[in-house]
Amino acid sequence: MTEQNLTLGATVALSKPHLNDLLQSLRAHGYQTHGPQVRDGALIYGPITTLDDLPQGYISHQDAGRYRLEHTGHPYYFALTPGPDTWKRYLFPRRRALFHFQHHQGTWETAPPHDPPPRYALLGVRPCELAAIQIQDQVFLRADFTDPYYRGVRENLFIIAVNCLRPGDTCFCASLETGPEAREGYDLLLTELDDVFLVSVGSEIGRQHLQPLPWEPASAFHLNQARRQLDAARQRMGRTLPDPQHLPETLLANLEHPHWDDIAQRCLSCGNCTQVCPTCFCWDVQDEITLAGDRVTRFRVWDSCLSPQLSYLAGGNARPSIRARYRQWLTHKFASWERQFGTLGCVGCGRCITWCPAGIDITVELATLRTQALHAGGV
After folding, report:
1. Minimal CA–CA distance to 363: which of 373, 375, 351?
2. Cα gap 83→94, rounded to integer Å
3. Are 256 and 333 in a shared domain?
4. Are residues 231 and 248 part of one domain?
5. Same structural domain for residues 226 and 276?
6. Domain end among 235, 264, 292
7. Residue 281 and residue 275: Cα distance in Å, rounded?
8. What is the pTM of this model?
9. Is 219 within a domain?
C-alpha cells in the first residue's frame, strides 16, 4: 500500500498481477465482476474472478461478414477487440419481466418484479462501448421518461474502461471521435503496456478502490509510451468514415436515392446488425400466461427495425420492404438520431460490418451515398 494519496484525474502505474486485488476488492464490496472471455470461438462478456479468465494471447481477424480468433501467445490481456456481445445487455437485458398480473379473490392485481438491480463491475469496457453506454443513457434516462431498471443498474455500475491500443479490422471509432482513447464516463481507466497497467482515476469511488493497492507514480517513459501507442492506434483503424458531420443532411436529402435499392438487393433483413449493435434499443412486449390462467407476466424483449413485425400496424406494414427497413435503420443511426439526442447513434465499433452475413459494410455504403449525392449536385 502506497503512502501517497490519489487524486481524481491522476494516472499511476500498477503491476499487472495486482489487477486481481482490484477485482477481489470489488467483489468484497458486493459487485459482480464481469469481463471479456473467449467462448465458442468468439469474445463474449461474463463473470470473471482473476486475470486468468481474460483472453490473454488472442487476436481476431475480422472483415465484412467474417470473424475468426487466433491464439498467438502474446502477453496482453486486452488486445482482443469486441465480438458479437455487448455491454448493453447488462443495463438493457434481452428479456426482462416488466410486471405481473395476478388473479386474486376475484380481482386482478398488478405487481412489479421484486428482484433488486444487480451491482456490476465491468472490466474491459472499450472507449467505443463507453460512448455507447452514454448514448443509451440519453434513451433510457430522459427528462420525460426514466426506465427504473436501467437507472437502478446504472447508478450502481462500476466501469473499468480500457484504452484501445490495437483496433480491429472493422473498427472506425477514430472517425467518430469515440476512440481509441476514453476521456470520460469511467471509474478507472486502464492502458495496458508491456509490464504494467497505467490506471487513470475517473471517479471518487474508483479512487477509493485503487488507493489501497501497491501502485506507483507513472513515469514519463510509461506515459510517453502510452501516448505513442494511442497515436498509432488512431492510424491503424480498419475502416474510416469520411465526413461524418455531413451525413445527417446527406441522408435526409437522399431518401429516394437509387443506392437504397442496391443495398436492399443484398440485405437479408436478418437483424444481425441491430442485435450486435451496442446502441440499438428497439423492443417489443410479450405476455405469458400460466396454464391455470391466473397469472400473466409481461416481458420486454429486444426487437429490430429490420424485422417486418416491428413496423406492422393495424392498417398494414409501415415499412413493408427491405429497402424501407434498411433505410430506416441507417438514417436513424446517422441522421434522425442526432435530432433526437444530439449525437449520432453509431460509435464506430464495426460489429454490424463483421456480423452481417451478406458482408454489407456501412462505411462503404455511406461513402457511396455521399459521393454519388455530391456528384449529382446534392449534399
Report:
1. 351
2. 17
3. yes
4. no
5. no
6. 235
7. 9
8. 0.93
9. yes
Work out the average pLDDT over 269-293.
95
- Give the residue from 235, 256, 272 where a domain finishes: 235
- What are the cell numbers at 204? 471518487
What percent of the chain has a predicted confidence (pLDDT) above 70?
Answer: 98
Across the range 316-338, mean pLDDT stands at 94
Whether residue 300 lies inside any domain: the answer is no
Whether residues 264 and 173 fall in one domain: no
Mean pLDDT for the chain overall: 94
pLDDT value at 155 more than 80 = yes
Task: Compute the distance between CA of residue 263 and CA of residue 322 in angstroms, rounded to an integer.
Answer: 9
Distance CA 250, CA 334 (A): 10
Residues 63 and 158 in one domain: yes
User: Which of 235-244, 252-261, 312-321 has the least mean pLDDT?
Assistant: 312-321
- Is the pLDDT at 1 greater than 50? The verdict is no
Give the span between the Cα atoms of 28 and 38, in whole angstroms.
25
Residue 114 is predicted with a pLDDT of 80
- Residue 75 exposure: Cα atoms within 13 Å on the Cβ side: 8
Looking at the structure, do residues 29 and 137 belong to the same domain, yes or no? yes
> If pLDDT is split at 50, 70 and 90, which confidence band does 135 have?
very high
Does residue 191 contact residue 165 with C-beta atoms inside 8 Å? yes
Is 123 a member of any domain? Answer: yes
Number of domains present in the structure of the chain: 2
Q: Is residue 81 part of a domain?
A: yes
Q: Is there a contact between 55 and 36 (Cβ–Cβ < 8 Å)?
A: yes
267 in the same domain as 175: no
For 18, the domain range is 11-94+117-235
CA distances from 20 to 25, 37, 137 (A): 9, 15, 30
Beta carbons of 171 and 136 less than 8 angstroms apart: no
Same domain, 371 and 269: yes
- Residue 211 phi, psi dihedral angles, 5° rounding: -50, -45
127-140 and 148-155 helices, crossing angle to 10°: 140
